[in-house]
Structures are given as structure tokens and as C-alpha cells.
């Protein structure tokens, strides 16, 4: 049900109950001169209405959505060389620094290849040097020098490949983080691209939420947001990403909030309420029962002017909460009719009786 229909029904129910009571303002036995619902003053018949003296407050417009925490980085480390797992250096859940060794794969064959490639480089270097000396003495040709130079460069390239292949037998951490689930154990044989383990970076921690197209236009990168987790903890974070395009299915926009997480106190996958302040304006806090409708069906309230006349004023509902709502569109100070509003019309003279909100 749309909010406007709900408000109209609420106003109708309140009016029916109020009419059934048979009075606008209850009689005061101690002040019989005020007991008449209608009084004569200066030739005008005035109805008595109750009013509250409302003063506008600073209302912060806040977008609230639910989000979920995730690691700022989450990478699966895979084998870059085939072979048997020889050593596990770091275990699941261990904090680890960038460049630290995690797992080692058998290096015996690769170590021998590096030695052979190194010897071949030395041999080709000797042959190239000899060819250069011979050409200076006139006993060799440029073709021979070019051939030995090519063979030397090929040997050097093979040596470099062998060294890289040897380095690939050690799995190292690409960044600071925490190790996740390990998929291999000592003695297992792994092939290239087999998953070995995962590493996650939880500092900073990211909280991802989704907002609608009306809300995303009010949010800017760099805005601060409050994050409240299910354990009651509330922390502040910064909006670091706003999706430039809506999700095709949900038609919502992804928003990421980054927060400091020193010591990895908070985990990935936690639910959090995300509150994003998008502005502030003057607003009045009222009971929903005060709202009324004009002949055009506009939602508003009735005010008592300085001349003691009724004035219908349309309002904008900013927020609706149990027992109260926030509205804008009124002067900073206003006498809002809280009882009898459905029995007086625009421009009618009234006697206003102030009551506590």
C-alpha cells in the first residue's frame, strides 16, 4: 500500500474516533466560562481548537540500507609449477606479510636444469669470445661471430627460464593478509593452476550495500557512513566506490564503504546496517494523527496564524517512524492544530488552546 493511501486511511480513522467522542475540546469544570465549544467575540463565532507550539529542529536526512562486510582483497593462490608438495611453511589462519614463503614444491629437477643452463651459458660465452679473437686475426668470418652470439643469447634465455621455473616452486604471499583454507598437504602432487590456498586482506574492511536510483543521486564518493554490526558495535567508514551502472536484475547500485580494521577485529561476511547522512534541513516532529487533507487531496496540517485564523499548509513527509514523523514545509515556529482540525476550514477564526506536544 502506498504511503499516501495509508496516511489518508489513518486520518479518516482518527476523525471517526474523534467525532464519536462528540467534543472538540473536553469541558473544564473549573473554568465554566471556557466550556462552550463555540464562543462569541467581536461579532464572530469561534471554535476552540487545541494547538501545539512546534519549533523546527535540524533534521538529518539519512539513507539506511543493510550491507555485508567483505575482504578488500581475496585471492586464490595457485600452483605455477607441477610437482610434489615438500614443505608447508605457513598454516591456515596465520597472518602473513608480503613476500613471505607459504609452500614449497619439489625443486630437485628444476635445480639441475638451472645448473645445466648455467654451464651452457659459460660454454657459449667461451665460443663467442674465441670467434671474436679469430676474426681479428683473420681466421674466422662475421658469419661465425654472429652464429656464436646467437647461441650465447639463446643459452642466456634458457638459463633465465630455468631460474624462473625454479622460483615458481615456492608459493609466496602477494600482499599482507591472513591465510584462508589450504587445499593441499605434504606429499600431494600438484599441477599448474591447481588451487593451493587463499589469502585475504581484512584491513581495510569493505562493507558492500545496494541503494535505489533515487538514493544513489544523493550519495557522493568520500561521504562518511555509520556502520552498525549485529553485536551493537558502531563505527564510521568512508564511501570509496559507487557503481556507475545499476544491476540489471535488481536495478540497484552498489556502494562500498571502507573502514579501518587494525588487528583484523572484524571478519568478512558480517551483516551491518549502513547509515549514510545525505544532508540536513529544518523539520517538525509531529504525531501522524495531526495530518489532514485538503479538498485537492494534498497532505498537510492546519496552522493557527497570528490573526487566529486557520491556514491549511501542505507538507512533505521526510521520515515515518513508530509514533511520530518528520515533516517539512512549515515556518520555523508554528502553531499546529492537534485536535479539531477536521472541523475548521481555511480562514476561520478560532480560539487556540496550547497543549504539550
Sum this structure up briefly:
By secondary structure, the protein is an alpha+beta fold. The protein has 4 helices and 21 strands.
If you had to describe this structure to a student in words, what would you say it looks like?
The protein has 357 residues and is an alpha+beta fold. It folds into 3 domains: 3-60 and 282-354, conserved putative lor/sdh protein from methanococcus maripaludis s2 fold (Beta Barrel); 62-72 and 200-279, Efflux pump adaptor protein, beta barrel domain (Elongation Factor Tu (Ef-tu), domain 3, Beta Barrel), CATH 2.40.30.170; 76-197, RNA polymerase II/Efflux pump adaptor protein, barrel-sandwich hybrid domain (OB fold (Dihydrolipoamide Acetyltransferase, E2P)). It has 4 helices and 21 strands. Strands 3-10-13-12-11-14 form a 6-stranded antiparallel barrel. Strand 16 (299-304) and strand 17 form a beta hairpin. Helix 2 runs antiparallel to helix 3 (142-167). The longest helix has 30 residues, at 108-137. The radius of gyration is 39 Å and the shape is elongated. The two termini are 29 Å apart. The relative contact order is 0.21.
Amino acid at each position: 500500500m502506498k504511503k499516501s493511501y495509508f496516511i489518508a486511511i489513518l486520518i479518516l480513522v482518527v476523525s471517526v474516533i474523534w467525532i464519536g467522542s462528540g467534543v472538540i475540546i473536553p469541558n473544564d469544570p473549573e473554568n465554566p466560562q471556557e466550556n462552550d465549544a463555540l464562543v462569541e467575540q467581536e461579532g464572530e463565532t469561534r471554535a476552540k481548537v487545541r494547538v501545539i507550539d512546534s519549533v523546527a529542529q535540524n533534521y538529518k536526512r539519512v539513507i539506511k540500507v543493510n550491507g555485508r562486510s567483505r575482504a578488500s582483497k581475496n585471492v586464490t593462490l595457485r600452483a605455477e609449477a607441477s610437482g610434489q608438495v615438500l614443505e608447508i611453511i605457513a598454516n591456515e589462519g596465520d597472518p602473513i606479510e608480503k613476500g613471505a614463503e607459504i609452500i614449497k614444491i619439489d625443486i630437485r629437477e628444476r635445480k639441475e636444469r638451472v645448473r645445466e643452463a648455467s654451464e651452457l651459458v659459460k660454454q657459449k660465452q667461451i665460443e663467442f669470445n674465441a670467434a671474436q679473437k679469430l676474426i681479428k686475426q683473420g681466421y674466422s668470418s662475421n658469419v661465425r661471430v654472429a652464429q656464436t652470439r646467437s647461441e650465447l643469447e639463446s643459452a642466456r634465455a634458457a638459463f633465465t627460464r630455468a631460474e624462473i621455473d625454479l622460483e615458481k616452486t615456492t608459493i609466496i604471499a602477494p600482499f599482507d593478509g591472513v591465510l584462508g583454507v589450504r587445499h593441499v598437504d605434504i606429499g600431494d602432487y600438484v599441477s599448474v593452476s591447481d588451487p593451493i590456498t587463499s589469502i585475504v586482506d581484512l584491513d581495510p574492511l569493505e562493507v558492500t550495500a545496494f541503494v535505489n536510483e533515487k538514493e544513489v543521486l544523493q550519495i557522493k564518493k568520500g561521504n562518511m557512513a555509520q556502520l552498525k554490526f549485529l553485536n551493537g558495535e558502531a563505527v564510521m567508514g568512508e564511501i570509496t566506490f559507487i557503481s556507475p551502472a545499476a544491476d540489471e536484475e535488481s536495478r540497484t547500485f552498489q556502494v562500498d564503504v571502507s573502514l579501518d580494521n587494525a588487528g583484523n577485529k572484524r571478519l568478512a561476511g558480517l551483516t551491518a546496517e549502513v547509515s549514510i547522512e545525505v544532508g540536513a534541513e529544518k523539520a517538525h516532529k509531529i504525531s501522524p494523527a495531526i495530518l489532514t487533507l485538503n479538498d485537492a487531496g494534498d497532505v498537510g496540517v492546519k496552522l493557527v496564524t497570528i490573526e487566529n485564523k486557520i491556514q491549511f499548509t501542505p507538507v512533505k513527509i521526510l521520515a515515518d517512524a513508530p509514533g511520530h514523523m518528520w515533516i517539512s514545509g512549515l515556518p520555523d515556529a508554528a502553531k499546529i492544530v492537534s485536535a479539531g482540525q477536521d472541523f475548521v476550514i481555511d480562514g476561520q477564526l478560532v480560539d487556540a488552546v496550547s497543549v504539550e506536544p
